[in-house]
Amino acid sequence: MTLPMALNLTEVQPLPDHIATYFALCDEKLGLVPNVLRCYTHAPAKFDAFSGLYNELMLAPSGLSKYEREMIAVAVSSENHCVYCVVAHGAALRQLSDDPIVAETIAINFRHAALNARHVAMLNFAVKLTHASAEITEQDRQELRTAGFSDADIFDIASVAAFFNMTNRVASAVGMEPNAEYHTQAR
Questions:
Q1: What is the dihedral angle through the alpha carbons of 24, 72, 161, 66, rounded to the nearest 10 degrees?
Q2: Residue 160 near residue 77, CB atoms below 8 Å
Q3: I need a surface site. Which of 38, 92, 105, 106 has the fewest CB within 10 A?
Q4: 1 in a domain, yes or no?
Q5: Domain residues for 101?
Q6: pLDDT confidence of 42, banded at 50, 70, 90?
Q7: What span, in angstroms and rounded, lies between the C-alpha atoms of 141 and 150?
Q8: For the whole model, what pTM was predicted?
Q9: What is the CATH number of the domain that holds 120?
Q10: Based on the domain organization, do 51 and 143 belong to the same domain?
Q11: Rounded Cα–Cα distance for residues 20 and 129 (Å)
């Protein structure tokens, strides 16, 4: 199977059992297999590393809600102009949101979204990390503490933002194509 990206790579055949099982679970829960996962099937060890870190950062217990983690993913991806991640995680953010207008605004420019002080501080930190990580100071961390984040939360904010900076660059570099279904979800 040719993979949904600009590179001429193919899925290993047969798929390892654990990946096939993972895909069946995705199809059951999401109604699709995200193309980003398909793109990693040319190298199962890379698939395992990517999916393992994604699951830990985005789904494991955290002081950050799933909604907050998706907010970071979308704001960072918007700053990086990553089509795949803005489309895919924008759909997830709309689904998790009580206000799809806010979710859409975050996908375009979070600075114009009607956000509370906690979320503004969180996204300002994530975007600063995106553009100038070497300039993060204790004052930046203290602003997050003042907004109600614990030090463990700050570590998670940094980790999610850093993960999406990496994945944005890979997705853009290899021309990953978002699943068409994402464009119409939660609209």
A1: -50
A2: no
A3: 105
A4: no
A5: 66-184
A6: very high
A7: 10
A8: 0.96
A9: 1.20.1290.10
A10: no
A11: 35
What's the structural domain count of the chain?
A: 2
Q: Are 123 and 75 in contact (CB under 8 A)?
A: yes
Per-residue CA distances from 3 to 9, 42, 91, 169 (Å): 6, 8, 22, 18
Q: Tokens 């980003």 correspond to what residue? A: 36
Residues 161 and 132 sit within 8 Å (Cβ to Cβ): no
Is residue 37 included in any domain, yes or no? yes
pLDDT of residue 61: 98
Q: Beta partners for 2? A: 10
Of 45, 31, 32, 38, the C-alpha closest to 4 is 38
- The mean per-residue pLDDT over the stretch 44-57 comes to 98
72 and 40 within one domain: no
Buried/exposed 67-77: b ≥16 CB within 10 Å, e otherwise:
ebbbbbbbbbb
Residue 79 pLDDT > 90: yes
Phi, psi of 115, rounded to the nearest 5 degrees: -115, 155
Q: Is 159 within a domain? A: yes
Q: Are the CB atoms for 11 and 38 separated by under 8 Å? A: yes
* Identity at 75, one-letter amino acid code: A
Task: Give residue-wise pLDDT tens across range 118-176.
Answer: 999 999 999 999 999 999 999 999 999 999 999 999 999 999 999 999 999 999 999 99
